[in-house]
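Retry 2 of 3 after timeout on previous attempt. Resubmitting structure tokens to design endpoint.
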């Protein structure tokens, strides 16, 4: 009997002794309790797991109630599983001394796994700029690879929907705009010390994007100058550095000269509690008018003192 006829016969027998409900159940994905030591982390996972107060609270919750929302894993060729979604829950389970974690097991390609991993983490409330930067870059590259082949349901490939680019499609399914996603991805070209400063809020997004166009050696020199001068470049200064760099003239001396330029937000400020002078000005007097009046009064006082000394 031909192999095809045998396969057909076995299929018929299977259908004869199982119900449609049982066959549908066999095809459905199920949640399985998997030992934590059989679950490896996702390669180059861009999202950091912090051992902060929120993590301690998660661990306490898992200790009391278990993992309420299952993670997602995919089988590995050599055995075991790879975490796709649920890295924080896995760490929380370890802290709670749980031996297993409930997970949905799904067969996924590398690109499918990347997209799900990124999408599941972008829903978090607090995400560092560096996390978004590498996550968007990974997902965009996965989408571009997918665009090169038709999907299983023969729909229009990702990145070609109505003439849209992959980044436009990505923006349509993300909390950030196309332009903002492009800015985030540029951050991946910063050297680690500068990227850390972006995460810490010491360098704003727009100057950071301009600095990302500098070669690594120039970024390193800039970082050394920033440490020496204890300051960070403004957007205008970052643009100027990029221009000098593109013309091959961004030397250490030029970087230092630009960094030593006075920025409006670095001018020395004198502040005084408003209640100390409120009796001299009607309620609602603009701050600029108060400043001008005080300067004028001080000028008159100074002139009077000078005339008395003569």
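Retry 2 succeeded. Sequence:
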């Amino acid at each position: 009997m031909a192999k095809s006829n045998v396969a057909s016969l076995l299929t018929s027998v299977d259908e004869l002794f199982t119900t449609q409900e049982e066959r549908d159940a066999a095809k459905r994905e199920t949640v399985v309790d998997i030992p934590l030591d059989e679950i490896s982390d996702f390669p180059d996972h861009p999202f950091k797991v912090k051992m902060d107060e929120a993590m301690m609270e998660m661990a306490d919750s898992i200790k009391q109630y278990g993992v309420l929302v299952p993670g997602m894993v995919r089988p590995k060729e050599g055995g075991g599983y790879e975490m796709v979604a649920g890295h924080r829950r896995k760490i929380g389970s370890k802290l709670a001394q749980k031996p297993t974690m409930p997970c949905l097991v799904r067969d996924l390609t590398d690109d499918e796994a990347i997209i799900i991993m990124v999408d599941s983490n972008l829903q978090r409330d607090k995400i560092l700029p560096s996390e978004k930067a590498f996550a968007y870059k990974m997902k965009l590259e996965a989408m571009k690879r997918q665009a090169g082949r038709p999907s299983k349901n023969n729909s229009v490939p990702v990145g070609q929907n109505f003439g849209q680019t992959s980044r436009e499609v990505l923006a349509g399914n993300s909390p950030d705009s196309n332009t903002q996603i492009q800015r985030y991805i540029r951050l991946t070209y910063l050297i680690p010390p500068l990227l850390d400063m972006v995460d810490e809020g010491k360098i704003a997004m727009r100057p950071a994007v301009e600095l990302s166009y500098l070669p690594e050696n120039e970024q390193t020199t800039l970082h050394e100058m920033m440490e020496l001068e204890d300051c960070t470049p403004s957007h205008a200064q970052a643009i100027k550095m990029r221009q000098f760099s593109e013309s091959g003239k961004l030397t250490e001396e030029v970087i230092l000269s630009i960094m030593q330029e006075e920025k409006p937000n670095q001018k020395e400020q004198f502040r005084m509690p408003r209640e100390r002078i409120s009796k001299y000005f009607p309620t609602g007097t603009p701050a600029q008018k108060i400043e001008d009046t005080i300067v004028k009064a001080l000028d008159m006082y100074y002139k009077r003192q000078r005339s008395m000394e003569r």
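Attempt log closed. The first strand starts at residue 31 and ends at 35.
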